[in-house]
Specification:
Elements: H1 4-10, E1 17-23, E2 27-30, E3 36-38, E4 41-43, E5 45-50, E6 54-58, E7 71-75, E8 80-85, H2 89-98, E9 108-114, E10 118-125, E11 128-135, E12 139-147, E13 150-159, E14 167-171, E15 175-177, E16 180-182, E17 186-190, E18 195-199, E19 205-208, E20 214-217, E21 220-223, E22 234-238, H3 252-265, E23 273-276, E24 282-286
Antiparallel strand pairs: 1-8, 2-5, 3-4, 5-6, 6-7, 7-12, 8-9, 9-10, 10-11, 11-14, 12-13, 15-16, 17-18, 18-19, 20-21, 22-24, 23-24
Length: about 290
């Protein structure tokens, strides 16, 4: 097998390749002909740039460690060639042997041949995706897989004189909902939203929640609207002596208002209501604001 550096220097047209592009600076490639579903998020563009320490392939913009992107972070390089391939039956068989959680058929794949003896293959399996890395030089090759700015996996290839590893593989399949990753072939209940989140074995997301006439309340779907809890009301009976020269019977409203104003001045809520009882005692009740 030719090493990646030979591909770069000779620019050989690889059989089965849809197109090839050489790059030595930050570059954006349209991959709508071979979109990649990276941990549940489908992308039709890919970005690659070289930093002082790494070569980085990202799907949602050029690499920014503060931006929380979806990226592959590998060793430093300075030159590369980008290809899109329609198919590879032998490569598909080898990958499926290494990653049995892939349950779909290879549709297409892309590759990045870099001048540090590294090749990235990113494979399209419809709603699933996979990553294959080739590294031929002696030593250790580490590639971080980053989702939403968080490293979720590190691929490790170590080649010595007695041990040539050369390849490492990773299933990039998952479902993503509300910013949360869900592994394939799992069912999870989220009580905050009363949602059952199902991620199939081919990374197809299905979310069920409350019905159209229901609401989520304390982790359970309930009919109608959630009842509003009203503040408690209090009733206070006062036994007081009222001295007046006017008729209580004919001036009850005025007397009740005077008593209410006095009680408010003493610190009771303005929402209180006062009713003068027939036996001469005073009944004071407080109601909730707005009640």
């Amino acid at each position: 097998m030719l090493r990646p550096l030979l591909y770069l220097s000779a620019l050989i047209v690889v059989p089965g390749a849809v197109g090839q592009t050489t790059f030595n600076e930050s570059s954006k490639f349209n991959i709508s002909s071979c979109p990649i579903t990276f941990y549940g998020q489908k992308y039709e563009d890919v970005y690659i740039n070289f930093t002082s320490q790494n070569s980085v392939v990202c799907f949602n913009g050029f690499y920014d460690p503060q931006a929380g992107g979806d990226c592959l972070l590998g060793p430093q390089a300075s030159l590369g060639v980008f290809y899109i391939f329609s198919s590879d039956q032998l490569g598909e068989q080898r990958l499926l042997q290494e990653e049995p959680t892939i349950n779909a058929t290879l549709g297409c794949y892309m590759s990045f041949y870099l001048d540090n003896d590294t090749i990235f293959y990113i494979e399209n399996f419809g709603s699933q995706a996979a990553l294959t890395i080739e590294f031929f030089s002696p030593g250790t090759h580490l590639t971080d897989v980053i989702v939403n700015g968080i490293t979720v996996h590190t691929l490790n290839i170590t080649n010595t004189e007695s041990n040539g590893q050369y390849y490492d593989y990773l299933d990039l399949s998952a479902c993503r909902h509300r910013g949360v990753l869900y592994e394939t072939n799992t069912t999870t209940y989220d009580p905050e939203f009363c949602e059952t989140v199902q991620c199939s074995d081919t990374a197809v997301l299905d979310v069920t929640t409350c019905g159209p006439m229901e609401m989520c309340h304390n982790g359970t779907c309930v009919n109608g609207t959630v009842p509003e809890i009203q503040p408690a009301s209090h009733i206070v009976f006062l036994n007081i002596k009222i001295s007046t020269t006017i008729s209580v019977e004919n001036n009850q409203d005025n007397i009740e208002k005077l008593i209410k104003d006095k009680l408010i001045n003493l610190g009771l809520p303005t929402q209180i209501s006062v009713r003068l009882l027939s036996n001469g005692s005073v009944k004071v009740s407080t109601a909730a604001p707005g009640g």
